[in-house]
Write a structure and sequence with these properties.
homodimer, alpha+beta, Arc Repressor Mutant, subunit A, Dna Ligase, domain 1, three-stranded mixed sheet, 6 strands, DNA-binding
Chain lengths: ~140, ~140
DNA sequence: ATAGAAATGAGAATCTTAAGCATCAGGCGG
DNA sequence: CCGCCTGATGCTTAAGATTCTCATTTCTAT
């Protein structure tokens, strides 16, 4: 229930926050821009301001409820933080986003950071390619 | 010589282009924002518009002369393409950028893409941490 | 040198995101 | 259950980054 997540995060339970959380939870793609969330809310008849969407997402991020991802392009993408760290693979054609986790890579990253004299805090790995899904507009090309 | 690179890239040899290429070649950090390049040109007495810097960098990118990197934050960072692919490790405190290449990671990436049914075209890996350099503002923290 | 095409500079425009501020709503005391 | 207080919201405006427009200038080939 959204209410619980919000309270746990120390955020007052308000309609906009619940709705946004709900959209993030129910999203098919699980990776949404602020704009996309905003439009979805408008479409479903909610009265909400884009500023609120950004504000709430930023608060969610600070609270650890969502992650803000910077893929190529200019818009940030938000995803609900479901616990496990993972990296991303994105189709250049259809925009599909998939998640993966590879312990070998994770390990090598830690090792590399150490070798370079860094205390690693975070990392971002994104693979870009063309997916071979039958719905992909450029399948097989 | 900058002239050669420009001609090879099929770009008309102009003063702004040569100057920008030169700055990219001689830069200590090797990772510059458009703004930084612009300011450096202004400081050295050149008359140039910010729009030109962006335009030229975009052309350079299209020509394969430079790469545009999207680290955290909103500004893109440009680096001269010296041939070899590499990934980046960035200090959260001092902004230092270092490059690395790890064949194990590269291999795993190809493997993962294949397993997920993607024809991989590109990837971006950035490690964020705190460097232990003596000049780093938060050394040892 | 000269014309034609392409490049530049300055400023306006655009896009994304973050304020500022007046109004509204959720949570608590009565 | 009602009303207040503080924080939340919505709208508008702003700020930062990048692109576009267009008149003017610069290359390159002749």
């Amino acid at each position: 229930m959204e209410t619980q997540n919000l309270k746990k995060a120390g955020l007052k339970v308000t309609l906009p926050r619940m709705k946004i959380l709900q959209i993030l939870e129910e999203s098919e793609t699980r990776h949404l821009t602020a704009e996309a969330i905003y439009r979805e809310l408008l479409d479903s008849g909610e009265e909400i301001g884009l500023a609120t969407v950004y504000r709430v997402l930023t608060q969610f991020e600070a609270a650890g409820l969502v992650s803000r991802l910077h893929f190529e392009g200019n818009q940030a993408v938000f995803e609900l933080d479901r616990g496990g760290h993972h990296d991303h693979i994105i189709c250049n054609q259809c925009g599909r986003v998939e998640e993966f986790l590879d312990e070998t890579i994770e390990q090598r990253q830690r090792q590399i950071a150490k070798e370079h004299g860094y205390r690693i805090k975070d990392h971002a790995l994104v693979l870009y390619g063309d997916c071979l899904d039958e719905d992909c507009p450029r399948r097989g090309n």
